[in-house]
């Protein structure tokens, strides 16, 4: 049964502007078209490669030199504007765009979706020449540097991105050193219990690990690079990659009138909030840039692929019908592939959660694990065990 | 409408079977395939199969026709 449109829903004569043509924006466009919206959709993105999927960039794109392809979630039934949004007036839904030549123009729309994602966080001591990985262009630059003969790479940051890059480069037979202030890798994703096991994966793959260290200085001079630690040890390499997290891309929204605090604040329907926390009519937020109101009144960003996809669909429905639709929320899902392990996480692992092995799959270096927090189940982790994961997903395991 | 699944791409995320359980099944290894006889998608299953396609993180599902 289809819900009824209420006042404020989209009319066929109206125009929707979507800022950001990545997963959240793309999923929104596709859902609007599925719902039957026939009006104009403008997708604004300065990334010359957009749309594309980001997860492969640190995985098979680096490890196996695969191509960038048009993703399944994209709908070509829209106008793509290759420009950067540099300012926004939320009340008037007016955008200022700057194209690659530097020329600026203003456009306005009947509804606007903010889906500008995130950008790499950089350490203040990083000199020019340090690589980061967020866009397809970044990944290509990194691949070219590897192809040009880099032999030894230093990766700063042992989170998901840093460890995936390290794994991909080890597959290409480069020597990899990894540096992090944290004493365990992957803590945000897997918690401390599983993070301790992940150290063994990296050692098994001969990664030169430097955990729990302070970085004193970073030098990058015409291919002569060094990360010097607080202990005085200098890790010399041919290139340095920084993977120390991402921050929401909100710089262009500073004077927009929207509430910004680690992302653009929005309610559970994806409607943007003003500084006074009132809903701004017909302005929506989705993906990594969205800080979404939770049932307990706090706000949180969900940096997962599935989260961005769901939020794009959700704002399309809110916008099209003029009111939030009730949808069955999916449990959080995240995955990573590294060091010969396919890791799948259903639920949200807490840093100090208790990990217990439900079933070991020793011949594949894997198994199925449960994570509990204060005695309550919070997440499943499957390592090289897709059949066990499928049973979990189908609700066949308690 | 026809649906196909590229087994080489499937990584076992198990999302297709969650979105369209009638059409997709798992093999013993936990990877997905199209259930035999469901390659031609019946009208009442088409929306679910479309959703499974756009929600596959590996782009393993292709819809044609």
Features:
A: 398 residues; alpha/beta; FAD/NAD(P)-binding domain; 6-stranded mixed beta sheet; 7 helices; B: Alpha-Beta Plaits; two-stranded antiparallel sheet; 2 helices; 22% helix; 22% strand
Can you describe what's shown?
The complex is a heterodimer of chains A (398) and B (65). Chain A has helices at 23-35, 60-63, 136-147, 160-171, 187-204, 305-321, 386-393, and strands at 15-19, 40-44, 79-81, 83-89, 94-99, 104-108, 111-114, 118-120, 131-132, 152-156, 175-180, 208-211, 215-221, 224-229, 234-237, 239-242, 246-248, 264-266, 271-273, 279-285, 290-293, 299-300, 333-338, 341-347, 354-361, 366-373, 376-383. With 398 residues, chain A is of the alpha/beta class. Chain A folds into 3 domains: 15-119 and 247-321, FAD/NAD(P)-binding domain, CATH 3.50.50.60; 122-244, FAD/NAD(P)-binding domain, CATH 3.50.50.60; 340-393, no CATH class. The radius of gyration of chain A is 22 Å and the shape is globular. Chain B is of the alpha+beta class and 65 residues long. Chain B has a single domain (2-64), classed as Alpha-Beta Plaits. Helices cover 22% and strands 22% of the residues of chain B. Chain B contains 2 helices and 4 strands; from the N terminus they run E-H-E-E-H-E. Chain B has a two-stranded antiparallel sheet. The radius of gyration of chain B is 10 Å and the shape is globular. Chain B starts with a strand and ends with a strand. The mean pLDDT of chain B is 95.
């Amino acid at each position: 049964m289809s819900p009824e449109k209420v006042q404020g829903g989209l009319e066929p004569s109206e125009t929707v502007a979507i800022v950001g043509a990545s997963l959240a924006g793309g999923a929104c466009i596709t859902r609007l078209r599925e719902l039957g919206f026939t009006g104009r959709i403008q997708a604004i993105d300065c990334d010359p490669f957009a749309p594309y999927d980001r997860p492969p960039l640190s995985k098979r794109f680096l490890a196996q030199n695969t191509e960038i392809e048009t993703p399944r979630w994209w709908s070509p039934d829209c106008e793509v504007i290759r420009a950067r949004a540099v300012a926004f007036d939320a009340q008037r839904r007016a955008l200022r765009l700057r194209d690659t030549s530097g020329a600026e123009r203003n456009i306005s729309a009947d509804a606007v979706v903010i889906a500008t994602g995130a950008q790499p966080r950089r350490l203040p001591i990083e000199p020019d020449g340090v690589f980061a990985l967020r866009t397809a262009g970044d990944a290509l630059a990194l691949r070219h540097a590897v192809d040009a003969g880099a032999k030894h790479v230093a990766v700063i940051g042992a989170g998901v991105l840093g460890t995936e890059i390290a794994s991909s480069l080890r597959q290409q037979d480069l020597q990899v050193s990894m540096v992090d202030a944290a004493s365990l890798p992957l803590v945000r994703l897997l918690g401390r219990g599983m993070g301790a096991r992940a150290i063994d994966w990296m050692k098994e793959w001969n990664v030169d690990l430097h955990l729990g260290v302070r970085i004193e200085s970073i030098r990058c001079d015409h291919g002569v690079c060094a990360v010097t630690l607080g202990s005085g040890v200098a890790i010399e390499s041919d290139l340095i990659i920084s993977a120390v997290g991402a921050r929401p891309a909100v710089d262009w929204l500073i004077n927009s009138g929207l509430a910004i605090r680690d992302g653009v604040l929005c309610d559970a329907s994806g409607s943007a909030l003003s500084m006074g926390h009132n809903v701004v009519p017909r302005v929506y937020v989705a993906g990594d840039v969205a800080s979404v109101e939770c049932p307990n009144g706090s706000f949180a960003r969900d940096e997962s692929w599935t989260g961005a996809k769901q939020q794009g669909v959700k704002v399309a429905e809110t916008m099209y019908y003029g009111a939030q639709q009730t949808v069955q929320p999916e449990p959080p899902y995240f995955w990573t592939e590294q060091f010969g392990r396919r890791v799948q996480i259903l639920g949200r692992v807490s840093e100090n959660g208790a990990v217990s092995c439900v079933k070991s799959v020793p011949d594949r270096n894997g198994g199925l694990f449960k994570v509990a927090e204060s005695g309550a189940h919070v997440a499943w982790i499957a390592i090289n065990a897709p059949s066990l994961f499928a049973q979990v997903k189908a609700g066949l395991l308690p | 409408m026809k649906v196909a699944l590229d087994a080489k791409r499937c990584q076992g995320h198990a999302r297709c079977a969650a979105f369209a359980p009638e059409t997709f099944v798992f093999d013993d290894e936990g990877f997905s395939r199209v259930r035999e006889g469901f390659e031609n998608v019946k009208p009442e299953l088409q929306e679910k199969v479309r959703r499974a396609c756009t929600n596959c993180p590996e782009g393993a599902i292709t819809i044609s026709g």
